[in-house]
Amino acid sequence: MLLTIFVLVGAAPLLISAGPSRLSAGARQALAAPTSDTEVAGLQAQVDRLKGLVPDQAHAMADVGYHFANLWFAAEKRNWPLARFCFNETRSHLRWAVRIIPVRKNPAGQDVDIKGILDAVDSGVLADVGTAIEAEDQARFVATYRQALEACYSCHKASGMPFLRPQVPTAPAAPILNFDPEAKWPQ
Questions:
Q1: 152: CATH
Q2: Cα 154 to chain center, whole Å?
Q3: Residue 135 belongs to some domain of the structure
Q4: Interstrand relation of 111-113 and 12-18 (parallel, antiparallel or unpaired)
Q5: Which residues, other chains included, contact 34 with Cβ-Cβ below 8 Å and sequence gap of 6+?
Q6: pLDDT band for position 7 (50/70/90)?
Q7: In terms of Cα–Cα distance, which of 18, 12, 108 is closest to 53?
Q8: What tens digit of pLDDT does each residue of 110-129 get?
Q9: At 67, which helix (H) or strand (E)?
């Protein structure tokens, strides 16, 4: 049996898992199932409060857009270290978005397996984008980036959000970043 405990550190809830052998008998007893409706209501209130601390999926997806837009300009300038960073951040934030809502309802009330869609996209077209970056192949990058945008849009449509139509970016999301790999300033 694995015990999961929520701990609040700063503003971020963390999960700490421990097997029963790591907890004292008193700790196991203190963490035993609540025995009264009052305790259950108190625990539900704590869970609801913790849920309120977690950003929504739209926030995570805004981060995806930020990193994926910057990825385009990093590759355009052949700044492959920056492209790798932006690519890895994109994938990380996609996974975060799916942890927030792994299954959502479409307008017809049917379940859409967002995690399943991401798993397919991640092992398919996103892997191809990563391969193009590792090969430092700009032409292949352009083609696979566009395919990734199409895959993103397929997920948006499946989720009942066809109005979220991605495009090849026309300007970087981070104007403060210098995408030139030969930049001399700042030192």
A1: 1.20.120.290
A2: 17
A3: yes
A4: unpaired
A5: 40, 42, 43
A6: very low
A7: 12
A8: 999 999 999 999 999 999 99
A9: helix 57-76
